[in-house]
Fold each of these.
Amino acid sequence: TGGTVVNATGTATADVLVDGENIVAVLAPGSALLGVDLAQNVDAVVDATGKYVIPGGIDAHTHMELPFGGTNASDTFETGTRAAAWGGTTSIIDFAVQRYGERVEDGLASWHAKAAGNCAVDYGFHQIIGGVDEFSLKAMDSLIDEGITSFKLFMAYPGVFYSDDAQILKAMQKSAETGLVTMMHAENGPAIDVLAQQLYETGKTSPYFHGIARAWQMEEEATHRAIMIADLTGAPLYVVHVSAKQAVEQIAAARDRGRNVFGETCPQYLYLSLEEQLGASSPEWGDFEGAKWVCSTPLRSRPEGHQDAMWQALRTNDLQMVSTDHCPFCMKEQKELGRGDFRAIPNGIGSIEHRMDLMYQGVVTGQISLPRWVELTSTTPARMFGLYGRKGAVQPGADADLVIYDPSGHTSIGYEKTHHMNMDHSAWEGYEIDGHVDWVMSRGSVIVDESGYVGSKGHGQFLKRDLSQYLL
Ligand code: DUC
Ligand code: ZN
Ligand code: ZN
């Protein structure tokens, strides 16, 4: 009661009535319903006066337990979704993996086995197609019935997930035919691998050179190529983890030509930089601490203006969403695999717990508006990936996934203070947020209150997703 309900469309002071797992009404404050005084006739009243009531966050890009870089991403579905809950995220869409040579059905089944019964919040899957061939193309026909309405291809990581242009063309034809959204990791992997090898051979082995090898030209080029093949085939295209301003320009140009092309960025590309993180600690090229921030696409150079360009693109809708690409690794025994050779550092940052806060700080600093915060972190993810109606808005009929966010609260992010991800460090140490996640409800169950996390493993259910609402 009494909170400011924030939806993508605007804000209003309102009471939100929840029955069972659903929102059943959004009402003028203190109003009676069918002559019944609500405050006297409900099981519980939660006072949200002076606070924001928002739809639970949807993180549409996570990698729990991903086998990658010679190890596994360190959050399980249990630990990762619990951290999500702490941070006001009530749905995730993780990437089920089909490895080259594996059946898509088997890859998907193994992902269901990891997640089922373990999640604190609801979860859906995208399907990574690690080997486009006649078998996987055939299997893609059944994905929609499984509630999986998007797949991801990689133009990077030759020998791991990589698809060449012929494979991309075939998969995009399938995308156009079925309505599955093509999600693209757009970096020119074969060229990057040569650059990385050359750097390594000349003794440039520190984490900093991860970012040098993965040059923005390699992101711009791959983004352009993906857009052109999507243009030719008519596939809806969603470019993941955009970090280079030149890649945004490609997406914006395609959208200006009327193409059905979308892009997400991540908090790390808005806040962190190549210089400050990967090269911070040494006057020369950075020490191994920089490994904490090795991810792909990489952190970009601040003097080149990439971070500012990402914020601007979020305002102009050239980018539509913010996901985390949550892919955590510990320093000990994981990132350390790449000591002396940046190519062997497992790629990834853990941010699932902090996305809602970090993006709210963009409201505080005037980068985005309050409704845009909700749109970028919940409403558009729901619409893009076939969850809208159930998720993504505070409206009657929706799942009661609600967050009470306190704009007078404060969150000091740090490993000792506010860390629930299964990692031995925070990539966000020292970030101060002028707001706080006070209370979180998932499908009618309170999972975070003033005492902390009160949810349970297994509460989260698999989300069978509908087709994207952004299909033409
Ligand atoms: N990038 C990462 O940083 N980690 C997982 C996969 C990816 O594309
Ligand atoms: Zn990727
Ligand atoms: Zn990813």
Amino acid sequence: MTGFSDSTTDSAETVSSKGTVGTVIRSHAGGYLVYQPELDINLLCQARGRLKKEGVSIVTGDRVTLDDIDPEKGSGVITSCLERENLLSRPLLANVDQVIIVQAIHQPDWIALVCDRYLVHFQLEVRSSLPVLCFNKSDLASEDDKKTLRSIYEPLGYLVTIVSAITGEGMDGLADLLVSKTTVFAGPSGAGKSTLLNRLDPELRLKIGVMENDFGVGRHTTTSSELYRISKRQLRLLGVDEESVAWIVDTPGFGLSEFKHPEPLDVVWQFPDLAKFAVDCKYSDCTHLVEQGCNVLANLGQIDPTRFDNYTIMVKESQSEKTILRDTSKKVESTVKSVGGREGKAVHVPLLSGRYRSKAKNTERQQLKRSANLVEDEEDIALEETSDFDSSSGSSNNQSEET
Ligand code: GDP
Ligand code: ZN
């Protein structure tokens, strides 16, 4: 944990600090820990009472103006919260510069569908920058594996970095990407995120509280988050200018099952290889799945089949979820009755009859069944395809998907 002892005590005087800006690196019951770059100090701050009254929410990553800074006590007061560039919902975090999606090449094997799910999710959440793809465990991969991964994602515009947290291969390149940025590390468990962060800066192991075992036991799983700064000494060791700052956030216990389904019509814009044909589709509400005359379908020959399969799976899931929500809300409406209806004074009460309850159960069952069908669909596709690295397109999907 970033301790309050990080605070330096350069000056014993209270700094007149109107307009001084800092970054919230942790929020907790007692207040906020704020890093002030000019003083290079962590300050324990309270928010002005007025902010609380106005209902201003302050989260990790927020840039805030400070007053009454006392470097000796390591304290200050937050007077306002500056406008956010973006807000990530999970982990709850403001002003994210980039997301690095970490996946193992092997052990566990890389899965194209998982990769696309992470890409879509974070492209929608952080629209200002494309996610970076970090493929870890390069020590277990062949040159062909690495070439295949690059050949799929680099032409789509993604930055691909291939590393080994064990041998250190590619780590300096990864460190370069972090300079002057706030980076979120996300990815399936087992991909090697903790090992990677520990390799970037061994002090992070203590701060993040990573346990020695592989099962994630003991790691914090709250929805709040904390910014960690890679030490200057460590940046120098990684060949980066030691005056640089690099902030990182880990996403422990955050898996695919927590992603919201995107709007069905938003999905295509997250697939650059489909989007370039979708712009010329004649229907504005085209799903690009079945429509006659769809420009994406007309150009399927130029799209990697696995990418199109993944697109199809994600759109169908989103459509299915929308249908379930619509059906459920219709059922709720039809189970409301009016009572005491004279002179417009009727009140609507829900009909909680046995019939209603059994319908709700049916809905629940339908939902489960539909999810199961989708999983079956994915398994069918998986079975039809050969191994990720054996196929000629190199991007098929042969593994069970982690959620
Ligand atoms: P996390 O769940 O993403 O945080 O993954 P961990 O960091 O806990 O790593 C999962 C397992 O992969 C551990 O047994 C690590 O030792 C191993 N691992 C991590 N990075 C590498 C790597 O670059 N090469 C190899 N061979 N194993 C790695
Ligand atoms: Zn279309």
